[in-house]
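Q: C-alpha cells for this one, please.
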Amino acid sequence: MNQSKINYLRGRSIFIFITLLITPKTIFMIQVGDVFTHDFSYTQAQVDLYAQISGDTNPLHVNQEVGKASMFGRCIIHGHYSASVFTKIFGTLLHADGHIYMKQNTTFLKPMFVDTPYRALITVKEIFPEKNRVLYETKVIDTATGADTITGEALLMNKKVYVW
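A: Here is the predicted structure, written as C-alpha cells:
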C-alpha cells in the first residue's frame, strides 16, 4: 500500500489522495491546468547511494569538506538525482499503472541540498488524445525560499489511463 501523499489542485479546491489505490483518473477527468504536488527531501545517505549506483562520486556531492569549501558552502545533490522525483511521481504516485515516460527536458536553476524540504509541481500543459499522451510542466520549488530549483517538461503515454 502506497502511503505517499500527493495533492491534486483544480482551481482553488484541494483534494488529498493519501492512498492511491483509488481508481486512477481517466483522461476525461484530466484537464489542462490541473496541478499535482508532492513534498519531499533527500538525505545524505540517499545521495551517497546514488553516487555509488551512478558512478558519479564527485566529491562535491559526497565529501563534506569539499562541499564546505565550494562556492555552495556545502555538498550539493546530483542534478539527475534531484530530478528523479519526477520519475517517482509518474512511476508510483500519479496514474502509475501503464505509464511510459517518453521525454523529460530539465533545466537546473539552483543547487539542491540534503535535508531541505522541496515541493514538486506537475501541471498538465497539453493533452494529445489521439496518441494517449499528456505533456506536463515539471518544477521543483525550495519550500523555504519559494525559489524554483528545477523546471522542465515531461511527455507521458498511458494506454490504460489516458483512454478516450
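A few notes: The beta strands are 6-10, 13-17, 35-40, 100-108, 118-128, 133-142, 148-157. The radius of gyration is 17 Å.
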